[in-house]
Amino acid sequence: MALQSRQRTPNPHLGAYYGIVASAFVSLAILLAMAEQLGWGGGSIARLMILMPMVLYMAIAVAARTLNIEDFFTSGRRVPQIYNGFLMAAITVGGTGFFAYTGALFFVGFDGLAIGVGWVCGLLLAAVLFVPYLRRVGTYTLPAYFGLRFRSPLTRMVASALQIAPIFLLLAAEAKIAAMVVALFLPAAYWVAVLIVIVFIAATGILGGMRALTWSGSAQFITGGLGLAIPLTVIAVVLTNLPAPQFTYGGLLGSLANAEAAAGVGAAGPDPVAGFPGHEPVAAVAPFLQAFSTISEAGFFALFVCFALGTAALPSLLARSGVTASVADQRRSAAWALLLVALFAMTAPALVVFAKVLMFADIVLIPTQGLPAWFNDLSALQLLRATDLNGDGSISFSDLLVARDGVALALPTLAALPYILTALMATAGLAIALAASGSHLFTLGASLSDDLYRSIDPQPIVLPRLLLAWTAIAGTALIMTIYLFIADVDALSYVVTAFALAGATFFPALFLSTWWQRYTVWGALASMATGFGVMLLCLVAGSLVGIADTAAGTAAASLVSALLALVGGIGASLYGPAAKAADTALFEAMRRPDGETLYDQAEAQASAAQNKTE
């Protein structure tokens, strides 16, 4: 068959190309470090460190432009496993993980680990339960999978509509983080930074779709990893004499506990309506090592399961299930993503411990006239502020208000390291945020165009199909720009809500459709509608009493919604019409890993039937 003869061999020179990207990034950092020692100002260094990699990303996107349908939506199904793993990890963590999650750990300590462990467990669930079967089916989007699984355009349209809310929230959070970095380090007005970020990710998606996002996103992940690893390794050497922060920060925990005790940070019990810190500067008053100081054991478990289910069923993550050359490669790419996210989950606590140790070493009832040098630098970036609340002429740690999303950016300054390392950290977070936000934007645009349009016109010609995708991406980008101008976006809160919605809406339907042959189209509709509807009702009702505004409250609502969705899907399938023979046959075909994807087979059969009628 013609489809089976398609070239699926990746470019053998990719390793060399991305080696050049990594070398160029490190060389730029070294040159700017030398320039800083020669007297260059921090503003020039920051602008070059931010803009030069962005120019490189856009050049890669331009080189990867395409008008081919398969390249646009699946990158030609020939992405090597490691590069797909890069993007899956970036989508999971994103810039919100880089800045907002590490900041949350700074304030709540142990309790924040529920998010990181949830990401890791969610990727494990996706790799085992869903990813191989979605690769076998081979649809471009998650709603298209439901449409093909049940031969139901209605199911496809409903899934496409329901995924808008969680993906829109994630896109808003990632774009806000990216715009924050651009505004701080160019510097530029916030609205200008928003325009730069949105135009950048929209242009990348329009130029080459999934293909451009894959290759530019791989470069972004590499620069993001290097930009995080270099400053953190330097600080680990300064504080522990060893370049392995993940394994050496434990030796500082005793010093941190003593410093917290000296500053008057005492143990506290969980508050049932307390949440993670917002994006406004607040004081860190919870001991890092005390478990369940801000949320209860039940809240911790709910948050962990919420992120696990949300990650496993995240539409923009699962959209990458069809881009590798085989089912085996897709399994391995999920394993790479799991490894990379686990490495980040191990690294984030080290970053936070280093920041708290350095800050506590200087802030223990110091006089207001003798503030440390880093205080003015971080205050200028609006990453912290301090007020002598009790008027005793000194500042304690409770008087120091720290911006949650700026903890990672503050670390090199706290360690009195050259400014280039701060710029490196900013570039790293920006790169990951751009990779994640571009993927979320493309997922929305592709679904709005392909899922909705294909439900109306099953056999469109090529050009209108791409034009509709470009229009959907551009329109979504315009709406997001306006939204960011008028909305006060709290990145971490948006991410918690988005993962809660994704888990409640799609995990039960995905699980049952993949693992239960009796599951029917009415069961799928019942699962998705119940999960989304109950979750939305919980958010609206909970916000009236202040519970759903907390991470634990939102997570608990997600678990209740997912459970009801599971029951609803099973009940509708058992008491409704039995599964059709075609649905049963596709269910069995999903379990055969060899051969062309089921979606491509269906496309070829439809095309052949159309040609015969003509």
Automatic annotation (TrEMBL):
Transmembrane is among the record's keywords: yes
Primary localisation category: membrane
PROSITE patterns with a match to the protein in the record: EF_HAND_1, NA_SOLUT_SYMP_3
Keyword Transmembrane helix carried by entry: yes
Cellular compartments annotated: Membrane
GO cellular component: plasma membrane
One Pfam family per UniProt: SSF
Gene3D superfamilies per the UniProt record, alphabetical: Sodium/glucose cotransporter
Similarity comment: family membership: Belongs to the sodium:solute symporter (SSF) (TC 2.A.21) family.
Entry protein name: Sodium:solute symporter family protein
